[in-house]
Predict the structure of Lysozyme.
Amino acid sequence: MRRFPCLAICAGLALTTFTAISAVPAVADYSLAEDNHAGSQIAAVEGVHGLPDHTRYTAEGQTLGHDVSGHQGAVDWNAAAGAGAKFVYVKATEGTGFTNPQFGQQYNGAHGVGLIRGAYHFGRPDVSGGAEQANYFVDNGGGWADDGKTLPGALDVEYNPYSDDKCYGKDAAGLTAWIKDFSDTYAQRTGRPPVIYTSTGWWTKCTGDSTAFGGSNALWLARYAPEIGPLPAGWAYQTIWQFADSGSLPGDQNYYNGTEDRVAALARG
């Protein structure tokens, strides 16, 4: 039997193979993930402008807490509790390709000494969708339990550490839609909307000062200054204020806007 060269078929296969290879997305960069934590880029971009008057804020019924990540390594939780910590947020994930290697020691250790704790996700709108990242977060420690000791998960949205484009290559409408996608998916998975961590500066610059979340998501505000200052649009008050990037507790320092029983109320939902 005479054999004919497979000119058309082979050309088609070659074209198909080339197209498939060219469509493979670039691998996401997580080289900074170990050091990225809530406020790392806010401190770098917006600066540190002093500390609040602790006497004033504790006298007004604020509750002291902190947040940690793999950047802190293993935490001495007995020492943290002894220094006055009542609650803590622990970084669990970043994007869809990084989990905090210290998460178990930090999250379970905080619970072991009686702290109310929650997990947070460092958002990467440049690498995947909001829903995909919410699912990754929940699947890797970011869920919520109705046990009175677990805070709802938090979404950390701040300046992009991987690029000069601090808004992750998205316009205000695109970023607002990404945050909503994350929030809606997290709420569907856990029954609780996530807390949103941000700064007024980033929120204004990158979401166009969206008012879409003030009625549903608690605000965790970052501002390293003696006063809280203006809030992002849509929120009448902050639930948590991250007032310093270092202090008496491991990691960043926070005040919950209320007494300790109000922290427990947020945990209970």
User: Anything to note?
Assistant: The chain has a mean pLDDT of 91. The CA atoms of residues 209 and 233 lie 5 Å apart.
